[in-house]
Amino acid sequence: MEKKGLSFWQILTMNFGFFGVQFSFGLQQSNMSAIYKYLGAEESELPLLWLAGPVTGLVVQPIIGAISDGTWSPRFGRRKPFFLMGAIVASLALIAMPYSSSIWMAASLLWILDAANNIALEPYRAFISDKLPQKQYSLGFLMQSFFTGFGTTLANFTPAILVSFGILALSDKMANGIPVSTYWAFGIGAIASTATILITVLTTSEYPPTDAELKQIEADKEKGNLFTRTIEEIGAAIREMPKTMKQLIPVMFFPWYAMFCYWQYITSALSLSLYDTLDQNTTFFNQAQLLTGNLNGTYNVICFLIAFAMIPIARALGAKRLHFVSLLLGGLGLLLMPYLSDNVILFSIPNPFGNGAVEVSQIYLFSFGLGITWASMMAMPYQMLAASIPSNKTGIYMGIFNMFIVVPMIIQIFTVQYFVYDWLGQNPINVIRLAGVFLMIGGLFSLFVQVKKSD
Fold it and tell me: pTM value?
């Protein structure tokens, strides 16, 4: 079937639900380590407490990809039912998270939240290949980069905005020690998760399967057990994996190992680097948590501002060269982070959320480079992959490709938990340095990927 090119606004609308999914992920990235510490977790316990995300991604995304490939309803479509189901469950978990009374309650809710987000996220990657002609893949995936940056930005900044408006005080806390600003941020995320997905579901149609695809779907249903069939399809797809996809394994491994190091330890690294403390009961640690949100928000601002500018650059340089340069900039930024100060002011901008001006300090420099890295990570590997996989297996291969994200995260969790953290002197700052080195290694591997000329 020949696919029609879509307008800019049609591509924006079809990807709008990506905003809600990424708002939810952004809340996790900036707040979960702090939430665990408020509930009594030690620094050395943090990696294992983050296990939910990669494990649910490893299990859920390939299965959802395979199931959605074999799903079709004239009324509900192929991918949209999964968007909506995931968003509703994620919203419920977001509402419950700030009420956690123990570490393991928070960890259990994170398992539910991550599973739901992965149910919604995986079909979105396949949605691009389903709806767009190949010449619009760059725009489609970079639109997702835009919403990744935009959604995560608002998630990161929401607690600071609430404090800046004077609605809440930095010291306002719930009975379990979690800041009230965190409670409100997660509530706003719950609304965003479902509302934005609904916009996509109600405004975007899906192409029906061809007659041949419908016959295959019906034949698959007649084979019996859905779970067994799905596992068999995943195994067959892995055995027949395209060469380009295999070459992307190290390109994905090192940067995603790095980003998990960053999300787990940036708050502690900032608290130690800037305020010389790791005590979560001090206002300095609270300040480091807010600063984490601001810095993460900044790199996501850079992400969504630069996403569309990357389209002509990707066409000129090629996806793999652009990815190399982008990861290099982020890696250098993280290596510089321990030497940057929060007291040296670079410039001031008007405060959009209150009176006076916002002073941008030296510490924000690393987040500028990381924003370019993040925009590229959200788009360029998928662009390199998209043309190399068969169109009738897009969902399952996008789900398998997510394994290239979550397996590095699982490896990171157990290696950091059991020997890397000790090897690095039990110093969160050294974990951030390791993340910088791994970003640059991933960039080097991208230069060796053989990409089809049409990409």
Answer: 0.73
